[in-house]
Amino acid sequence: MKTNTFFNIKLITLFSFIWLFASCTDLDEVVLDEVLGNNASNPAGALAAAYDRLGDGTFVDHGGVFSLQEYTTDEAILPTRGSDWGDGGKWRDMHEFTWKSDNAIVGDNWNKLTNGITRSLTAIQSVEESSIPEKKLFLAEAKALLAYYMYTTLDLYGQVPYRDPMNPNAPLQILKADTQIDKLITDVEALIPDLAPMGEQQTHNGRFTKEAAYGFLSTMYLNRAVFKDRYNATSSFNFSEPAVSGGGTDMDRVIYYTSLLINSGKYSLESDYFKNFARDNDKGKELIFAISQKIDYIRNGSNSFAYVCMERNQRASAANRGTNAACTTPEFYATWDDNHDDPRFQQHYRYADGTWFMNDGTDVSVPATDIVPKSANLPWFHFNRGIQAGLQYGPILLPSGSLEMVGGRIKVSPLFMEKSTTTRMDFTPSLTFKNPAQAVFAQNEINQGARVFKYEFDPEGGNGNSNVDIPLFRLGGIYTMRAEAYFRKGSNGLAMEDLNKLRTSRKRESLYASAPGKALTSLDATQLYKEIGFELYWELYRRPQMIRFGKFDLPGTAKAASQPFRRVFPIPQSTIDVTKEFKQNQGYN
């Protein structure tokens, strides 16, 4: 975490901790603490370990929760590309809706999330048994993290394990989404008095503050109707149900909690949308709750969201490259039709001397004055941000191991695919699979797919590490939640006002005279659905959104129409085999 207080965390030890699930999981427990020593039972260390689970692959890696929340949607797909990314079909399963209870991604994410529950319960026990001055605050944060891991598990798997942390002989309980959602809401609401406002008691956007709780409660209320009626065949969810507490309906509570954040004065929208996902975003104006990342050579942040889309011959420096994996689908790309001038769609990079990287064949060279941090003076090449389609250009790596230069500058050339050297790097928005039901490309087709360069590629620590903090709740998303709640209550004008706030607050780069986004003049459900995608693409929100809007079951690229049982994933068979309390989810027996 990026703080100078004792709550900074560093990896110090590994130990097996299995009291919650017995042999359900073989994940090692990672305990982190910088100052207080390596006593795993100390409250700060236990709480830090619970936080660390957020960033240790779970919410920051494309194979983590992202793969369940995005690869199952129209926003993202990871095809088999020639000889790459076959991996037994586990990635294609996500988009083709063919996953089973033995799918490795389904099992790995279950283990990560339930391990987060274990760590949170350990933190609760450790804090409860302590007499530290921060007891009330730490206990509230530990319980909030527990609720967050449990909510995510219920969202994805429909069931979650729980055991009373203060009773070593307590039986294992299996809680279900339709009944537990109300309990989670009331539990988090009860924590608000003990959570610190952000910036007080040494808190920051990497810790669970009052404001993080408001964002979390908004999310739970927005999706409560789905949790209560997951298998509704017509997706006719009751968003007008009376709220758990506070009066009004679920949507009224979404409006209440989002308004607390919007009106707090603590956050403001970035005019440069892509600053939210930049290398130096740790003090970003929109970040309410984020996963703090840094390259510290102990627990390095993950570069996965940036790395996963870049082609192997796209190089930020002579020491970096992409991996040519994921892309977006034609369906999502088409939602941007007539909206390519939106500041959130794409952004050109400008170097300090005024050179713009146009990526259109007109570039000759860019300055070599930007240097990769902590490198041996390696020139840093910056790719454009946002959704990238069409022919691609950039530096070429010479056999000598350095980038090709011209006149002391980085030369820009047409790029070809690394594993199909005669195939031009052309990120086609279309995806042409030989078998439309299977996301498989031949070797000479591996260039296909518009790519998402939303998160800045950080070249400092190799391909895999990053200083980019990963937002979980940010102000832009809060506006979309309030807009959706207004719309579901019939207040279309107020919904459009919030969406236009997002549109017009964002500005294009100075290449386009810093033009703001264009305001909407009308709003219907179709446009609302698109607007949420424009603001939140690749931020782990698409699957719940598609379910709420009745889109998740529909056919699409490499996906046939699916049944409602696919709205949740199966409990891993390995868990059921050793924990008889679990019963498999509907449709997976």
UniProtKB/TrEMBL annotation:
Residues 268-588 form the RagB/SusD domain. Its main location: membrane. Transmembrane segments: none annotated. InterPro entries: SusD-like_N, SusD_RagB_dom, TPR-like_helical_dom_sf. Pfam families: SusD-like_3, SusD_RagB. It is found in: Cell outer membrane. Residues 1-22 form the signal peptide. Keywords: Cell outer membrane, Membrane, Signal. The keyword Membrane applies. Coiled coil: none annotated. This is RagB/SusD family nutrient uptake outer membrane protein. It comes from the Bacteria. Residues 95-222 form the SusD-like N-terminal domain. SUPFAM superfamilies: TPR-like. Belongs to the SusD family.
